[in-house]
Each structure stands twice: as structure tokens, then as C-alpha cells.
Amino acid sequence: MTSLKINGRLFTLDADPKMPLLWALRDLMGLTGTKYGCGAGLCGACTVHVDGEPMRACLTSIKSLEGKSVTTIEGLADEQLKDSWRRHKVPQCGFCQAGQLMSAAALVSKHPRPSDSQIDEAMAGNICRCGTYTRIRAAIKDYQG
Ligand code: FES
Asked: Which of 59, 115, 116, 127 is 20 to 30 A from 24, alpha carbon to alpha carbon?
């Protein structure tokens, strides 16, 4: 049994402790906002927060998360950031956007007015096949939190 704290709620899972969090979220907990892109740590679509830090759910075993606090897109509380995303109409197909938002939320929680280089560094691991990068940057710059 593995106990996980997800979005403030405690879950006990009867699953292989090596199971990646992404599979547990989507298949066992019904939290499908976190997306499967590459499954290999390359695209950022599966980004969640672990104790406030961005982390790739496809590469993180559930066992390694015991005693830690996980936040997924369903639990993201930063309404100001979501508002900025809406104002700038960031998503196109939308598939990568949960991961984009989670990486951006981790950034603005530390640097509410990030520099271009801080944005580059924080968002470099999140790929968008629609090329929404300009709107992502604008939404982060326009963050009112
Ligand atoms: Fe995890 Fe691509 S699905 S980084």
C-alpha cells in the first residue's frame, strides 16, 4: 500500500510502488487533467508540483512521494494565473497546457515578476506543438498575483 497526498486529500493505493505517478493519477484516481505526452520526461505535459516544485509525473514513482504533498492541475489554486491564461487565450489544442500552467505557477510563486531569462529557464522543458510560446510568455508577464 502506498499513501499519497494529492491536492490536500489522502489516497491509499494498492499498486506497484514503482508505478509512475502519472499512471496512478489518470488510471487509479481519475485525475485526468495531467496529460501523457511522451512518457519519457521530454515534453512537460505531465508536470505536477511536489512540495511546490515542478516535477514530471511520468518519471516519478508513487513510492518516492510518500510523505510529500502533490498538487495537480485540478488542485492549482492560483486563480490570477488562470485568469491571465484566459485573458491571453493561450491554448490552441490545449493538450500541453496543464503542464505549462503548472510550470508557470511554480515560477510565479517564487518570482511574481519574472525576467525573460527566468521565464526561459522555468518553461524550457514544456513543449507546445501548436507553438503558443508567445502567448504563454505574455500571460506570465501579465500575471497580476
Ligand atoms: Fe512526462 Fe512527457 S509525459 S515529460
From this structure: 127
Which atom belonging to ligand 1 lies closest to the Cα atom of 39? Answer: 3
At 21-80, the pLDDT tens digits run 999 999 999 999 999 999 999 999 999 999 999 999 999 999 999 999 999 999 999 999
Whether 93 lines ligand 1, by a CB cut-off of 6 Å, is: no
**Fold classification of 2-74 (topology level):** Ubiquitin-like (UB roll) (3.10.20)
Distance of alpha carbon 130 from alpha carbon 94, whole angstroms = 9
Strand partners, 97: none
Closest-lying ligand 1 atom to the alpha carbon of residue 56: 1
Instruction: Write down the pTM of the prediction.
Output: 0.96
